[in-house]
Amino acid sequence: MRTSMTRRAFLKGSLAAAGLTIGVSVTPFGHRLLNASEIDSFSPNVWFKITSENKVTIFIGNSEMGQGVLTAHSMIIADELEADWKQVQVRQAPARDEYKSPILGVQITVGSASVRGFYEPLRKVGAAGRAMLIKAAAETWKVPEDECKASLGTVKHEKSKRTLTYGQLCLKAAKLQVPQDPPLKKESEFRYIGKPMPRVDVPEKVSGKAVFGLDVTVKDLHYAVIARPPAYGAKPISYDEKGAKQIKGVEKVVPVPMGIAVCAKSIDAALKGRDALKMSWDKGALPDMDNAYIEKSLLEDLNKPLKSVVNTGDAKKAISEADKKIEATYYVPCVAHATMEPMNCTADVRNDQCEVWAPTQSQTVSQMVASQVSGLPKEKVNVYTSFMGCGLGRRARPDFVAEAVMISKALGKPVKVFWTREEDIKYDAFRAPASHRIEAGLDAKGQLIGWSHKLVSVSLLKDINPAAIKEGIDFYCLWGLADAPNSPMWNNRIQYEIPNLSIEFLISPLPMPVAPWRAVQNGPNAFVIESFIDELAHAAGKDPLEFRLQNLKNNMRARRVLETVAEKAGWGKPIPKGEGRGIAQHACFGSYVAQVAEISVNKKDGTIKVHRIVAAVDCGPVINPDPLVAQIEGGVIISLGTALKEEVKFANGGVKSANFDDYHVIRMSEVPEIQVHIVKSNEKIGGIGEVGVPPAAPAVANAFFNATGVRIRRLPLSPKTVMEAMKKV
Amino acid sequence: MISLHVNGKVFQVDVSSDTPLLWVLRDHLNLKGTKYSCGIGECGSCTVHVDGKAVRSCTISVGEVQRKKIITIEGLPENHPVKKAWVKEQVVQCGYCQPGVIMQVAALLSQRPTLDADQIITKMDDVICRCGTYPRIKRGIKTAIQMTKKEVKKS
Questions:
Q1: Which option is the CATH number for B81-154: 3.30.2320.30, 1.10.150.120, 3.30.70.20, 1.20.1250.20?
Q2: Residue A14, SS3?
Q3: Residues 44-83 of A with CB under 8 A from B
Q4: ipTM over the 0.90 cut-off
């Protein structure tokens, strides 16, 4: 399917003369609808085409990674187009500037931005098609347009009882001008939007036929694995090239910037060849670095001068004059993406062309990187997106694309770069580790009057977009607390009404690569903010729900998810002895989520059992409710991993964790009952892929406090951490 | 030459007998539905049936499975109750681990004496789904059991 679709097939399929094609040219500043005749034939930017066979093919530029974007985007277009879902087929589109996100400026699937970014443009795309088909029918019948109505892939003229199908009309419609501001449907007229539609990618995934990155095959494909340094900054001392070449099937050994690549006819031969290299390395840049070193470094840096990010009122004064003053230090470690499909990419670099097949979240960035590495102009680089075994943000980083292009170029053959699980974890770019110190003041009534927050983190933007770091401030590290003005991430800020607020920040010089990890730093920052809010509630002698509502007086959306989740979870009702209940809320990517966790603690071994998570979500209009619930369930579950188990282990200046036997993730028996309640909302549409993550970990930590009276200020709440914390009391 | 009996057909492959079954299925027999994820038998993405039992194809060599009947996700009929239940309950998200999950559930479902849904669920801790489809996997198991019962009644 998608991955085996060549550029020619795409052109042939999408720009065939016979049919109506509508494109939309999107830029960060807006979008413009285009007819096929306006589209450069070498740059197909179609969103859908209708052919005489009465088929509607929809092309989606965002990556399908299980969140259901192929279906959601197609539902939006098909609804406004008034297409019959039975005539719709969906294809993953290749990298093209025209698929760039209107709010992010590149073709990328991050920031829970696929639906919130494309909702309006795609409605217009569909509606424009509908208007053109109606006009074509009206002209055919020589009747006024307003007497014609589009319905399920046909246009009808009621008065004369005449009907034409979209297939019959498409050629005529294709010659018409594209209306720039076509009339949109009323909400009550929606046929697909808001209804539970089965996902289009499910059947092929169940059958085993879905093509993921590792499954892409091309003629004469070679496989490459790379021997990589065991510590950050380590340089090769020696390796046995001859030994590797003696392995049957090994063709070439290629030194690359990230190590030594072994190319072979099969994965098995490449792996055996790499073993035979018997690589030795020097000690690297920081041979003493381990987990204790990292934590100490981040905590010590809190005492350095930090950069001011937010400074409203006078936090220092308000806190010093407050009736109650509370201070706490928090720490969050590195966690790995550990996507089920390890990183890989297939590339075929020729003299005049470069083809890339990648399980990527970032098509146009991959294209740019492939262009730089191959030395070919961007127009000669085609990037095709396969299905991918989880995205989680890891696949927006184009390192694996660069490797495949580099090695294919050196070998002169198509190459699949393959990362083993061990490489995938050791050479991951992690969720950033960070330290926080917060001071806050309460007045005599227990009202929050001042908050001073210090945050030290390894920088995410240093790799992604260093130019976006202004005056030492990396907003990706701050999301959930603060964001840049006019950020396309919509409301990744602290929600509480704090009259005197100071937020300060410093980039840590630690060497590990870090990257967005589902919800980015909203996840760890929500753990810190919502745990500390819980501390304040107890200091104020107030119920944690009541305290939150009291400090969110004018924030109706945050209030509503809190009130909903409290009601659904039976907040305030007694719970069995030995159990604990905790609450947390967080807003990010334009949506609001609150969760209640119910847990119990085994005081003998320190294990926490999560019994139930209840979630309430306000994301504005809902496109497809079932995948929405699935995204919240998945977000909760991966967040429970960070709450209870996940922490990357470092040793000797490198990563010690290597596989699922020493990097522990959530498994079936640890999964609680999860209830998701969607709050009906007509607010601006928000994201959904990541927003389930942030409240789960603090809800669990707050439930732990409720059960034990012990506050744990670091992730994860592993048995070891729990036992140590309980001993101190 | 190694002789393998896969999905009802016999194949001859020119590999050494210590090659993991996973790579032979994927790269020699072009059965890409069976997935690599951990390579050490920890996650279950590579699960296939060997003589009716769920086996991790990443940690078993082709030499060990000669003359045994191997079934992969491609060989599990499309109307198998687990596959049908997985579509009905919309279990999958990214879908990468699911061929392994489906094969594990299918093997447990065919176990005699029969296991109920809760017993099957307790045997699912050795398959990992990073998307967190576990609640849907539970639902899928229950639906597959119901579908199996209905089929038995019909016949």
A1: 1.10.150.120
A2: helix
A3: 65-68
A4: yes
